[in-house]
Amino acid sequence: MSIDAEAHCVAEWFLDRKKAGYEWSQMACLYPEHWIGGRVAQILSGHGAPIDIAKDNRNRVSVKRVAVRFLSMHSAKGLEFPCVAIAGLGLLGRHGETVEECVRLTYVGVTRATHEALLTYSSESALVQRLIAWPAPRRRSFTR
Question: What is the pTM of this model?
Answer without folding.
Answer: 0.86
